[in-house]
Write a structure and sequence with these properties.
Length: about 260
């Protein structure tokens, strides 16, 4: 009976959390993304989410592209398929690794920041003060972050794709002995527009997930400094899990031909 009781409590807590997220999503869409739009807040969040995340996303993409080229070369050499390195690096980066790794990096950096910022505002009653001043917190705090996340993450992923392919190119031509012209030509010949756009679509969805989870957990933070710490952790963990789940769903949808 104790096992069933514990299981029931876990299920009820999970359903309660899902219900809270759905209600928060409804309020964010109906209140945060309707006029009035705070353009200055959107631009500020785009700078914080996009530009400030460029170093970590760029370095991650570069080393991932280089490591991917090495692994594909070593694996392909068993089947005399070394020539596929450039093609598989380009496809792997643009379709999967670019958007997923960029999303996870931004979740760790930006999702935690949003949750900590809004959590601190909640426990210090600054969000309540906004309501007292007749300013809708969803319009002023949530909406700009959601819009900025959806806009900036595809841009970040486009840059990450370029840097990741460049990392594979440098390793391929400098360490593995590939001809520079042949490497670039193979990449251009086999890389299609759908491969790039599918990754950018994923990035927009991931950007929405990251900002939504950061806002949700920060908005519902309670219990002082410890509560803010829990909100930050929960925002990162939930964003990462939802990114991987959404990646599977979007891959199944976009490549189900």
């Amino acid at each position: 009976m104790n096992f069933l009781a514990n299981l029931g409590r876990v299920v009820l807590a999970l359903l309660t959390e899902i219900g809270g997220i759905v209600i928060f999503l409804k309020d964010a869409l109906l209140q945060g993304l309707t006029p009035t739009i705070y353009l200055r807040q959107i631009l500020e969040q785009m700078l914080r989410i996009g530009y400030n995340s460029l170093p970590v996303v760029g370095l991650t993409a570069f080393f991932t592209g280089g490591a991917l080229a090495l692994q594909i070369y070593l694996g392909g050499s068993r089947f005399n398929a070394e020539s596929l390195v450039s093609t598989i690096v380009a496809l792997g980066i643009t379709r999967e690794l670019g958007p997923v790794l960029a999303g996870l990096m931004v979740a760790g950096r930006v999702g935690a920041s949003i949750a900590a910022e809004l959590g601190t505002m909640r426990v210090t009653e600054q969000i309540d003060a906004l309501t007292t001043l007749a300013t809708n917190p969803f319009k002023y705090l949530v909406g700009p972050r959601l819009i900025a996340g959806v806009i900036t993450l595809p841009i970040l992923v486009g840059i990450a794709d370029t840097i990741g392919i460049m990392g594979g190119y440098i390793v391929g031509t400098r360490s593995l002995g590939f001809n520079s012209y042949a490497y670039i030509k193979n990449t251009a010949d086999f890389l299609e527009l759908d491969d790039v756009t599918s990754g950018l679509i994923k990035a927009a969805v991931f950007g929405f997930i990251i900002t939504l989870m950061g806002c949700y957990h920060g908005f519902h933070s309670k219990g002082g400094a410890q509560g803010v710490g829990r909100a930050t952790t929960n925002a990162v963990v939930s964003s990462a899990i939802l990114i991987l789940a959404a990646n599977f769903a979007l891959t199944s949808l976009l490549f189900s031909k």
